[in-house]
What we know:
The protein has helices at about 15-20, 25-30, 35-55, 60, 65-110, 135-160, 165-185, 190-205, 210-230, 235-245, 255-265, 280-285, 295-300, 305-325, 330-355, 375-390; strands at about 115-120, 125-130, 135. It is mainly alpha-helical. Strands 1-2-3 form a three-stranded antiparallel β-sheet. Helix 5 crosses helix 6 and helix 6 (about 135-160) packs parallel to helix 8. The protein is globular, with a radius of gyration of 23 Å.
Amino acid sequence: MTVHSYPSPPQAAEQTVWTRITAKNSLARRLDWWLLCAAVTLSVLGALLVYSATRGRTDLNNGDPQFFLLRHVLNIAIGAGLAALMVWLGHTRLRNAAPGLYVLAFALSVLVLTPLGSSINGSRSWLQLPGGFAFQPSELVKVGVILAMATLLAAPLESDLRPRPDNRTVAQALALVAAPAALIMLEPDVGQTMVLAAITLGVLLASGTGRGWIVGIAALGVGGALTVWQLGLLDEYQINRFAAFANPALDPAGVGYNTNQARIAIGSGGLTGQGLFDGSQTTGQFVPEQHTDFIFTVAGEELGFVGGGLILFLLGVVLWRGCRIAVGAPDMYGTIVAAGIVAWVAFQTFQNMGMTLGIMPVTGLPLPLLSYGGSSMFAVWIAIGLLLAIRVRSRTRM
Length: 398
């Protein structure tokens, strides 16, 4: 008698790790690798630029050339961990947690205006933490506002299949952003308020809000800015920044010093730059706040037009993938969240690069994924995690 042997059916326990990773519906295959690789590359470039800008700053690094580098790498690692947490939780669970996150961000913004808050560079925007760390609640506000507004605006669109949210819902959504924006203006922090305005516009456009609302909000924003100016609600240093923007030749050694030195640094880089760690303006410490607000000047001087163009390209990839994720999101909530994040990163990138080139007023906004600062790094990586979470649960190819 002939005995035939047949292969045993594969058991789940016997599957290799590689098989599980490469499975058709595995998490790894559903991640947006374009987005993730661009974000990681920008963070690595940012670490190199921060090190270049701070290694010789003995007045800031306590004699340790790697002081800021190590902290920056730690911030990136924590931020990446928060992004992984967002993917693991999923945007649906985060939707349920949106009200609590919004309340937390709002409460922290209130604390900033109490004696627990501290001032840095003329703005009372920080909470001091143990170990010499500082936290900026307005960065968390951006995440909380996006999730809360998306939760409110998406509900009637998904349940009632309406083409656009009704007037009452839009008014409630605007109230959600107006409350923390008012607190941030009291700090005062004009830059973060402008980012909230850009987020609001992106969220409303993605939700299909009527044109009348958009025009009305734009008019209200212009009127509000003029009112703030006329009533003298801005601090003197903020007024001086806008004056220097309007007239670059005004007091080049005073209020216009930052912008003038930034333009000199970027212009001296030429096509390929002076070489990483070899920038004369950076080594000479001529550009203030170069590791935070003016980090792009290090890239312009040391990496030149090629390096600056690479950074702009990678940020463009982040925005491109964010737009694709918004279009292919599995629900309206995901679409609105992704659109809000794209508006946030796009405006903040334009504002930061614009102020280093002299085409936008100096507002103290960091360059996403590159500037030194834990609060900003955490918030942006949370935003990246939200985009990845939406992409993972999308059924469409991108």
